[in-house]
């Protein structure tokens, strides 16, 4: 039977999450309790045992309510039997009854794009990856204060008003995870970025700025902080920074529960999918 998971089932579902994706039970419970929240965790049961998991994290997009599907997994012995397809159908019906207009997700690997396409999802939210050397500008300045959940929401509203938006609990979970992994934030009054230092390179998982010049200033300030001489940037396909540079890659997917709406200019990133 497919249905909303009960809170007493969370420990078993957290173990299923850990068995499937690794990590700690503490992180898995945080995903269920905080990132998704009670009432937004779906499970399939067989003989009283939870056999599959789907977290439907609350999000909004273009003024519409929806869900971000996260942590989808099935017990190994049940895979290939239609359990996840049935669970996705049940989640869709339940979410639509609550007023949700769509669901989004991020396939973990290339074959899963086809798997989800067969279950009503289509590609969206492509990202553009580009690499640039960063000039050693000793005069470059920026702020490196920790970004709060509220602060990130405000920055998104300014620079990416068509972004898939998490709620406050969702942003808190994402930022807690990013900072635990060593992310650094850099900002000026003309933009902001979040990056990891990997060897002698900065890996920007998000970068927004008013112009190429403003983005370059952020990169140069980040070089002074990190000592890295180059930057790998992941931008939304529709972002105009360094236009024409880099290669476009598939990233996310969307399924509309009713009338489709235009998401070609929409953006999705920082969805607890960075490792």
UniProtKB/TrEMBL annotation:
List residues of the N-acetyltransferase domain.
1-145
Q: Which Gene3D superfamilies match?
A: 3.40.630.30
Read off the InterPro entries from this record. Acyl_CoA_acyltransferase, GNAT_dom
MF GO annotations: acyltransferase activity, transferring groups other than amino-acyl groups
The organism's place on the tree of life at top rank? Bacteria
Annotated signal sequence is: none
- Looking at the Swiss-Prot or TrEMBL record, what is one Pfam family this protein matches? Acetyltransf_9
What is this protein identified as? GNAT family N-acetyltransferase
């Amino acid at each position: 039977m497919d249905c909303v998971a009960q809170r007493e089932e969370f420990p078993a579902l957290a173990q299923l999450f850990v068995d499937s994706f690794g990590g700690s039970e503490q992180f898995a419970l945080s995903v269920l309790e905080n990132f998704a929240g009670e009432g937004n965790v779906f499970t399939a049961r067989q003989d009283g045992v939870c056999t599959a998991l789907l977290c439907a994290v609350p999000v909004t997009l273009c003024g519409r309510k929806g869900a971000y599907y996260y942590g989808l997994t099935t017990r190994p012995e049940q895979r290939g039997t239609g359990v996840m397809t049935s669970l996705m159908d049940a989640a869709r019906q339940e979410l639509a009854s609550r007023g949700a207009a769509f669901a989004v997700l991020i396939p973990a690997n290339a074959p899963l794009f086809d798997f989800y396409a067969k279950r009503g999802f289509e590609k969206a939210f492509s990202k553009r990856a580009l690499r640039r050397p960063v000039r050693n500008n000793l005069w470059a300045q920026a702020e490196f204060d920790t970004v709060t959940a509220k602060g990130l929401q405000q920055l998104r509203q300014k620079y990416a008003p068509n972004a898939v938006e998490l709620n406050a609990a969702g942003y808190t979970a994402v930022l807690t995870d990013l900072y635990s992994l060593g992310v650094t934030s850099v900002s000026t009054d003309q933009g902001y970025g979040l990056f990891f230092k990997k060897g002698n390179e900065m890996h920007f998982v998000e970068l927004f700025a008013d112009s190429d010049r403003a983005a370059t200033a952020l990169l140069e300030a980040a070089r002074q902080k990190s000592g890295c001489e180059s930057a790998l940037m992941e931008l939304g396909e529709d972002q105009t920074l360094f236009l024409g540079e880099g290669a476009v890659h598939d990233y996310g997917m969307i399924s509309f529960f009713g009338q489709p709406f235009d998401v070609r200019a929409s953006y999705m990133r920082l969805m607890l999918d960075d490792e």
